[in-house]
C-alpha cells in the first residue's frame, strides 16, 4: 500500500522542516535548504516494488546535500536513480554534474556525498534500491554516478525512461509475482543503459578483465536452466582457465559458484511466488533451474530466504489471494 506524505497537513511555518524530516525518513540522511522565500508546498507518494522503493514527488524549489559526515556515519548502502518528470534539476557527485530535463535520469550513490538542486517547482520520481542489485550486473556502476541518461537520446536510455515512468504508475496493480519480475527487469534495463554510456566512464570499463566478467554474467544468465552450468562450463565459454574465471569473481568479493547458485535460487524464488505455477511441484521448479538434489535445494533456499520453499510458496499464495484484482 502506498504511503502519501503532504505538507498540506502542516502549518506553513513548519512545512519545510516537516518535509526535510520526511525526506530523511524516505531516502537517507540529508541537509535541505529552501531556495525561494515563498510559501513551501510538497507531496510525495511512496510505493514498494520488491526491493525497489519508488517515490514520486511534486515539490517547490529546494537544495539538497548528502554530506560527507552523513555518508561516513550511515550504514545506508543504496543507489538512487532520479527520473525527472517536470521542469529541471541537477545531480552532482564525484566531480560530475548531470542537468536533467523531463525524461532524463541520473544515478547517485548514498555511500558518498552528493548534491541535488532545483531552482523551480518540479516533479520527479526517485528509485531507491540496494547497491548490490546493480553491482552484481555491472561492477563499475558506482563509477557512472551523476551522468545524464537522456530520456530522448539513445534508444536504450529512452526505453529505460519510458519503462520506469510506466512502472511507477502501474506498480500498485502488480501482484507479488509480477512485482518480482518487473523489479528484475528494471535493474537489468538500467545496467544496459549505463553500459551504453561507457564512453564517459574510466578506461577500466574496457579492460579485458571487465569484459570477461561481464561476459561471464551473460553466460550464466543465458544458461541457468542448463544442468551443465558450472564454473568449468563458464570458463570454457569464455575460453579462459578455470582459475582465471574464478578470479574474476574473487576480485569483486564473491565467487563464481556462489553467483551461479544465487541466480538459480532467485529464479526458483520467482517461480515459487507465481500462483500460475502452482501445478508444478517444488522439486520440478528446483530441477528446472539446474538443481539436482531436492533436500540440498531446500536447505540452500531456507538459508538464503529464511523460509523453506514450501513455506515461502504458501505465504506467497496467501499474499496473492489477498491482492485486490
Strands ordered across the widest β-sheet: 1-3-4-11-6-9
Strand content: 15-25%
- Name the structural class: alpha+beta
The residue fraction in helices comes out at 40-55%
Q: How many structurally independent domains?
A: 2
Structure write-up:
The structure is a single chain. This protein has helices spanning 15-26, 68-73, 131-135, 155-170, 176-195, 208-222, 231-238, 242-250, 256-272, 282-288, 294-305, 309-321; strands at residues 3-6, 31-34, 42-49, 52-59, 62-66, 78-86, 89-93, 96-100, 105-109, 114-118, 122-130. With 325 residues, it is an alpha+beta fold. The chain has 2 domains: 3-200, Jelly Rolls (Sandwich); 207-321, Homeodomain-like (Arc Repressor Mutant, subunit A), CATH 1.10.10.60. Strand 3 and strand 4 form a beta hairpin. The two termini are 14 Å apart.
Q: Could you name the key traits of this structure?
A:
Arc Repressor Mutant, subunit A; Helix-turn-helix domain-containing protein; 325 residues; Jelly Rolls; 6-stranded antiparallel β-sheet; alpha+beta; 5-stranded antiparallel β-sheet
Task: List the SSEs and their pairings.
Elements: E1 3-6, H1 15-26, E2 31-34, E3 42-49, E4 52-59, E5 62-66, H2 68-73, E6 78-86, E7 89-93, E8 96-100, E9 105-109, E10 114-118, E11 122-130, H3 131-135, H4 155-170, H5 176-195, H6 208-222, H7 231-238, H8 242-250, H9 256-272, H10 282-288, H11 294-305, H12 309-321
Antiparallel strand pairs: 1-3, 2-5, 3-4, 4-11, 5-10, 6-9, 6-11, 7-8, 7-10
Helix pairs in contact: 4-5, 6-7, 7-8
